[in-house]
Design a protein that fits this description.
Oligomer: single chain
Strand order of the largest sheet: 2-1-3-8-7-4-5-6
GO molecular function: histone deacetylase activity
Pathway: Ketone degradation; acetoin degradation
Largest sheet: 8 strands, parallel
Protein name: Acetoin utilization protein AcuC
Radius of gyration: 19 Å
Shape: globular
Family: Belongs to the histone deacetylase family.
CATH class: Alpha Beta
Pfam families: Hist_deacetyl
Helix content: 25-40%
C-alpha cells in the first residue's frame, strides 16, 4: 500500500446549497479548501476530483424511487415532492440537488476505492459525512448518504470488516440504519444525548439487529459535555472495540458541530479537543486497520470560525503533516474570509486549550452522567465482542 494521502475535491460540491439562511452554508467548504491551500497542505498530498455517482452505485444504499424523486426535485424545485423528505425546512429542494449530492458521494466512494486498491493509505473528503440520509428519504440536511455508500462500495469490493466512527454531535442514524443487520460493519457514534438533540436516536440499547448484535455502538453524552468528558468517553469505548473487531478499513466522520460556538447543538468542545479526536482516529487506523483510513466531514455551522480550521487540521493529519496548534492563520485566508463574509475570521489554529482527560481505567464515578453514558454503551455491546464491560 502506498503511504500517500489524497484529498478528494471538486469545486462543484459547493453547489450543494439549500439557499440563503440555511445553516448548511457552502461557504464552509470554500473557506476550508482556501485554508488548506493557504497552509500549503495541498502540496503535502495529492488533490483530485471524482465523478458523480451513477444510479447503479447509488442503489447500493438508496431506493431507485427515491433517487428518481431527487432528480425530479432537482429539475423542478418549486414543485413540492411529498413522501421523500424533500419538502421540509431542513431539506428544501434546490436546482441541481441530485447532481451536487451525487458529486459529494462520488468523492467519498472514490476515496474508499483508492484506499481498498492500495493506491493511498488515507483519503479525505471534508464535503462528505452526510450521515442522516435514509434509503428512501432525505433527512437532517443530507440527501445521499455518502459514508454509507463508501462503506457499501468497500463491501462490494471484498472488504469483510469495516468500522465506522461518527464524531458528529448528532447521532449517525442513517449509517447505523443502513448496516443494522450487517455484522460486517461496526458503527460507533459518539453524540449528544437523543433527549436533547435531533434525530432523537442513538440510545445505548440500539446495538444492532438480532443477526448483528453488538454491531451498533452508541455513546449518548449529556448536553454541556466538554473536552475532558468527550475525550474520556471516546477513549473509554473506541479502541477496545476496534481491537476486538479488527477492521480492514476505518471510516470516520468528523462533524464540527460539537464545538462550543456551534449554534445548533449543546456540546462544548474546543477546536483542540476536536483535533485530538482526529489524531486518535488516524492513530487507530494505523493500529487496527493497516493504515486504511477514509476521513469525512459532516455537520458544522460555525462556518467561519470553526469548520475551516478543524477540517484543515484533519487534512494535515491525514497528510502526515499536522498543523501545530499555535500556527497563525494566514492573512491571505483572513482576507478571503472578509471578501466572502465581511467578517474577520480567527487568528490561530487553536482555541488555546490543552485538554487532558482521565482514562476509564482510573475508575468509574456512578454519580457522573458521562461515566453513566460510557458504562451504558459498554454494557450494551462489549459482551457481544467478548469484552468485559
Amino acid at each position: 500500500m502506498s503511504g500517500e494521502a489524497r484529498l478528494l475535491w471538486d469545486e462543484g460540491v459547493t453547489r450543494y446549497d439549500f439557499g440563503s439562511g440555511h445553516p448548511m452554508d457552502p461557504v464552509r467548504l470554500t473557506l476550508t479548501m482556501a485554508l488548506v491551500e493557504a497552509l500549503g497542505l495541498d502540496r503535502r498530498l495529492t488533490v483530485r476530483g471524482a465523478p458523480a455517482l451513477d444510479e447503479e452505485t447509488l442503489a447500493l444504499v438508496h431506493e431507485p424511487d427515491y433517487v428518481e424523486a431527487v432528480r425530479r426535485a432537482s429539475r423542478q424545485p418549486a414543485v413540492r415532492e411529498g413522501g421523500f423528505g424533500l419538502d421540509s425546512m431542513d431539506n428544501p429542494a434546490f436546482a441541481g440537488m441530485h447532481e451536487a449530492s451525487a458529486l459529494i458521494a462520488g468523492q467519498s466512494v472514490a476515496g474508499a476505492e483508492d484506499i481498498w486498491r492500495g493506491e493511498v493509505a488515507h483519503a479525505v473528503n471534508f464535503a462528505g459525512g452526510l450521515h442522516h440520509a435514509m434509503p428512501a428519504a432525505a433527512s437532517g440536511f443530507c440527501v445521499y448518504n455518502d459514508p454509507a455508500l463508501a462503506i457499501a462500495r468497500l463491501l462490494e469490493l471484498g472488504a469483510e470488516r469495516v468500522a465506522y466512527l461518527d464524531l458528529d454531535v448528532h447521532h449517525g442514524d442513517g449509517v447505523q440504519s443502513a448496516f443494522w443487520s450487517d455484522p460486517r460493519v461496526l458503527t460507533i457514534s459518539l453524540h449528544e444525548h437523543p433527549r436533547s438533540l435531533f434525530p432523537g436516536t442513538g440510545w445505548p440499547e440500539e446495538n444492532g439487529a438480532e443477526s448483528a448484535q453488538g454491531s451498533a455502538v452508541n455513546v449518548a453524552l449529556p448536553a454541556g459535555s466538554s473536552d475532558e468528558a468527550w475525550l474520556r468517553a471516546l477513549h473509554a469505548v473506541v479502541p477496545e472495540l476496534l481491537a476486538a473487531f479488527r477492521p480492514q478499513v476505518l471510516v470516520s466522520q468528523h462533524g464540527a458541530d460539537t464545538h462550543f460556538e456551534d449554534p445548533l447543538a449543546h456540546l462544548t468542545l474546543s477546536l483542540d479537543a476536536q483535533r485530538l479526536g482526529a489524531e486518535a482516529a488516524h492513530a487507530w487506523a494505523h493500529e487496527h486497520a493497516e493504515g486504511r483510513w477514509l476521513a469525512l466531514g459532516g455537520g458544522g455551522y460555525a462556518v467561519v470560525d470553526v469548520v475551516p480550521r478543524i477540517w484543515s487540521h484533519l487534512v494535515g493529519i491525514a497528510a502526515h503533516a499536522p498543523v501545530p496548534p499555535e500556527t497563525p492563520v494566514p492573512e491571505e485566508w483572513r482576507r478571503r474570509v472578509f471578501a466572502l463574509t465581511q467578517g474577520e475570521g480567527p487568528r490561530r489554529m487553536t482555541d488555546g486549550r490543552a485538554p487532558r482527560w482521565s482514562d476509564w481505567g482510573t475508575g468509574y464515578d456512578p454519580a457522573d452522567r458521562v461515566d453513566q453514558a460510557i458504562l451504558a454503551a459498554r454494557r450494551a455491546v462489549y459482551p457481544h465482542h467478548g469484552l468485559l464491560a
